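As a warm-up, study this chain.
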Amino acid sequence: MVLIGLTNSKVEISPFDLIVRDIRLQGSLCYPTSLWPRVFSMIESGRLPVDQLVDAVISLDELVDKGFEPLLDPSGTKMKILVDLNA
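Now compare it with the structure written out below.
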């Protein structure tokens, strides 16, 4: 499993579950952290309208048909689909 998103809240992970299920967890950061203050400033000022970057918010049950399929469609226009785990 590769964790590519960031969250501002703590997440609990059970090492036991990772071990008995033979799961390897790896993080990935594609931008240097020195860029984040500038990005936050742009969001705060409205110069970077992040709400417009999200194409859809879906439930976990819709992950394949409304998540993966639109994102994998070569002729598609979707770029960012969020999964609401509480929906």
